[in-house]
Amino acid sequence: MHLHVRGQEMEGSLSLLLLLSARRDDTTSIHHLLEQAKGAGVRPSGYTMEKLLNTYIKRKHLSTAVSLYGSIRREYSEAPLEHWTVLHFCTMLVESEKCMEAMHTLREFVETGKTPEVPPKNTAESCKVLLSKAAEVGGYEVAKEMFELLLLGRLVDPGPQIVAPLLQCKLDRSDLPGCIEVAEYIYKTFNTLPKRMEILIRLMQHNPPTEENLLPVLRRDGSQAQQGSDLLGHMFELVQACYGPAQAQHDLLFASLESGYPAAARLVLQTLGGDVDSHQILRMCKIYAKNQREVALKHLLVASKGMTNIDRLRIYELLLDAYSLSNKEAGEKALCLWTSIQEEGLTPSSTFPFQPGNTPGEV
For this UniProt entry, which segments traverse the membrane (predicted)? Predict the structure, then answer.
């Protein structure tokens, strides 16, 4: 008011007051400020109005944000909204189960806005969040249409993390045939295959692997497989096409370990033979140990028993690391490991935490 009386620029102070009022959820003050500004012939900048909109979006004020978004689109057409603002607005709509409104908003923005020459780097995470929410709330069809609009507007590149929600919504609904169908579409269209391990694990949990139904998959002969393992064979072929036969077999190995089928894991190891990638296995074992996934390491010890191309001593050491991290009966478990190592005739290194002179509590 002081600036207005003196005839000085009041846009900066108006912007600050509007944002402060929005953070305090004081809609009455916001309305009063805008009326004052209008009476004084002062028009808030498009930048100020967009910041006000973003404040409402962050505070999940749906009705106010919807009203303000419409006003900005009508009255500030010369100052288009930033991409991420529209994406955040659409995400809020989806979270409020207004998927059709979100779809209409995104389509209108894409069709009437200026398409960037390359996808903006700062929109990738916003696109990922929007698609994840769309998949969760609206299902595959909504997420797919949102995804196609994002590509049409050149708002994002179709990388693994961006297309993953299309698969996740099928997994969340236990639609395994649909999941394989989407995985094939993603591979053939975008040459990537996200969530492949999760899909393989779910397929094995759905139809437990046996020698009878797993060998045809490993030999790429799905004609002898049962219906449940046909899905596994199809997924295996997709992984082969995308990452090569060796990686596909290693993926089956890790899926067998993580889903609790050491016999199937042993069958994969026997099929790999001399092509076992010991470095990849060791890398996965370190991940298991770090995440305290003791069971997967135990399954690998069972699956690899008697095999000389697997560093079983290192697996024992990593399993002990997992025990130490979990801190649950670590001493007693370490003693059992030590006994198993001795029975196999392995010689632990001097850095092995459990030695005969230690008591279990010192491990």
Answer: none
